[in-house]
């Protein structure tokens, strides 16, 4: 249960970061680019740690 919820929340963080990045780039460069990259990094890092811990 924990692994599934962690995977879902981390995937949602990555998806939210991608959406923030795309929307910000479509409307001009802004702070959303930095936040989008940080959200992507946080979600990807969490997924990486989850996978690394399993092996």
Please outline what is shown here.
The protein has 55 residues and is mainly alpha-helical.
Describe the structure in your own words.
The protein is mainly α. It starts with a helix and ends with a helix. It has one domain. It has helices at residues 2-26, 31-54. The relative contact order is 0.21. The mean pLDDT is 93. The radius of gyration is 13 Å and the shape is elongated. The chain is 89% helix and 0% strand.
Indicate the topology.
Elements lengths: L1 H25 L4 H24 L1
Helix pairs in contact: 1-2
Distance between the termini: 18 Å
- How much is the radius of gyration in Å? 13 Å
Order of helical and strand elements: HH
Q: Total helix count?
A: 2
Q: Largest sheet, described in full?
A: none
Which oligomeric form is depicted? single chain
Which structural category fits the helices and strands?
Answer: mainly alpha
Low-confidence stretches: none
Q: Any descriptors?
A:
single chain, 55 residues, mainly alpha, 2 helices, elongated
């Amino acid at each position: 249960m924990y692994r599934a919820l962690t995977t879902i929340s981390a995937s949602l963080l990555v998806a939210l970061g991608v959406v923030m990045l795309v929307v910000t780039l479509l409307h001009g460069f802004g702070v959303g680019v930095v936040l989008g990259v940080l959200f992507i990094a946080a979600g990807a890092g969490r997924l990486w740690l989850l996978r690394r811990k399993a092996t």
